[in-house]
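Q: I'm building a small set of examples for a reading group on sequence design. Run inverse folding on the following structure and report the sequence directly after it, with nothing in between.
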């Protein structure tokens, strides 16, 4: 298979690539959460849920057996299994606590295990948690049940149990197959290892496979990334995500182990991103939103075409639920009233749960202004276009509500990166890599924020 290559970076796009902007997996974004929203507030929000409407559930496991230097997630090394056992016991208590607070038995349409590495659990402990979830919630017959995994530590026994428990999707952080790059980020996993893990899960009945790829890694080049795309296409996942490496060592201390001098510059990152995207489309994948790709008949690609695609903390999704119940340390949740995040410190999280309190560290209540801007930002991130007049009308706003944002987009419109006329905003093909920058024009929190975000590309 011959992989397509992108040409020289577009100078108009290049001018915006180093802008630090949120990823907009929520609005308002996490840096604006505050401790005035606590477990008591969350209790009231959960009690007001409509039990007739399906929810989503996210379970967080902050343990890994290996330390990946590029990772910005909240995680702990599981040198011993005893702390994992303690964590699981508390997670079971939290599931029971949330179920008691909820107004009736909730229906679950999507369930996602993230981390960390959820497959650090033993198969029996994974089954204990799933049994508890099923005892307290009703999983829809067609529910998507997904789990993140690490091919370096996934055992045959765990792969078989994942299949037995009814998981429908598994995701792997491939990142890059080049040995030099893998060494530089401390994630050694040859293509054969990843392929064997995928084969094991497919044999167990897990039909959906996701791969995550990263550009902008130390020592990475366009050639190494294209070789990785080619190897991935041969394995045949039905979905891939292509993320830019976010070097934030002030937040993720493990990233200080990465040689910053070996990182590609802004122009190189842009070229890598464009080349990999072109190669993925050349391999038959359909572009979805900003950075996801799927086989044309996959539900994600279908949702992008029919206008039902959504975006949440797991990225692009087919999940329409307005409520996400986050379980575990650091887990983020949302209800129609607002967002919450659990304590990231496992000790504080466990103490709150054992005292019978919802372990919320911070969050933010949302109003109609937030809901309007969230809808506009999500439409841009999912479909690259939005009618701001129509969106405003749904919330009782006149056509002028978006005037400031539209003025902010005028320089990008002059460069052909976006069109903005009569309230209709549409991102051009050239402007697609800058979806986050364009969406940021509608973010009224960002101007006053001191938060440090990753670069746009």
């Amino acid at each position: 298979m011959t992989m397509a290559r992108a040409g020289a970076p577009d100078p108009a796009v290049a001018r915006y690539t180093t802008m630090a902007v949120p990823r907009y997996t929520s609005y308002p974004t996490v840096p604006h959460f505050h401790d005035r929203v606590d477990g008591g507030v969350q209790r009231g929000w959960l009690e007001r849920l409509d039990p007739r409407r399906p929810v989503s559930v996210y379970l967080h496991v902050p343990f890994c057996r290996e330390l990946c230097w590029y990772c910005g997630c909240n995680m702990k090394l599981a040198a011993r299994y005893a702390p994992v056992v303690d964590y699981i016991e508390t997670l079971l208590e939290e599931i029971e606590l949330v179920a008691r607070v909820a107004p009736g038995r909730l229906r679950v349409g999507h369930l996602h295990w993230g981390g960390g590495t959820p497959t650090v659990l033993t198969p029996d402990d994974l089954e204990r948690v799933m049994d508890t979830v099923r005892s307290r919630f009703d999983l829809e017959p067609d529910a998507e049940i997904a789990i993140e995994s690490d091919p370096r530590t996934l055992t045959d026994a765990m792969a078989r149990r994942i299949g037995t428990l009814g998981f429908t999707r598994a995701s792997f952080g491939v990142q890059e197959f080049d040995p030099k790059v893998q060494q530089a980020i401390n994630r050694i996993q040859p293509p054969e290892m990843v392929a064997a893990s995928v084969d094991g899960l497919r044999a167990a009945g897990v039909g959906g496979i996701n791969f995550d790829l990263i550009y902008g890694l130390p020592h990475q080049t366009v050639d190494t990334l294209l070789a990785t795309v080619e190897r991935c296409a041969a394995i045949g996942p039905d979905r891939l995500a292509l993320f830019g490496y976010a070097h934030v060592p002030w937040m993720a201390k493990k990233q200080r182990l990465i040689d910053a001098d070996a990182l590609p510059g802004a122009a190189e990152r842009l070229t890598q991103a464009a080349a990999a995207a072109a190669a993925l489309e050349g391999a038959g994948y359909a572009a979805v939103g900003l950075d996801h790709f799927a086989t044309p008949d996959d539900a994600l690609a279908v949702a992008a075409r029919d206008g039902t695609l959504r975006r949440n903390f797991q990225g692009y999704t087919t999940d329409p639920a307005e409520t996400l119940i986050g379980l575990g340390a650091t887990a983020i949740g949302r209800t129609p009233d607002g967002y919450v995040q659990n304590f990231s410190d496992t000790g504080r999280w466990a103490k709150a749960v054992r005292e019978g309190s919802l372990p919320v560290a911070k969050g933010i209540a949302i109003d109609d202004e937030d809901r309007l801007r969230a809808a506009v930002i999500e439409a841009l991130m999912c479909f690259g276009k939005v009618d701001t007049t129509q969106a405003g009308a749904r919330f009782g706003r006149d056509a002028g509500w978006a005037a400031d944002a539209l003025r902010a987009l005028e320089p990008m419109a002059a460069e052909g990166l976006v069109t903005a006329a009569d309230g209709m905003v549409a991102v051009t093909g050239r402007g697609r890599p800058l979806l986050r920058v364009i969406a940021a024009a509608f973010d009224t929190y960002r101007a006053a924020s001191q938060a440090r975000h990753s670069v746009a590309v």
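Confidence is low (pLDDT under 50) at residues 1-5.
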